[in-house]
Specification:
Helices cover 60% and strands 0% of the residues. The longest helix has 15 residues. This is DUF2087 domain-containing protein.
Length: 25
């Protein structure tokens, strides 16, 4: 499972929306 791609996508999405949601699980 390409979890890294999903992680990057989520990070990029949050950054583009103007709020950074740190998910260091």
């Amino acid at each position: 499972m390409p979890w890294e791609q999903d992680y990057v996508s989520v990070r990029r999405y949050t950054i583009e929306n103007g709020f950074m949601d740190r998910k260091d699980d």
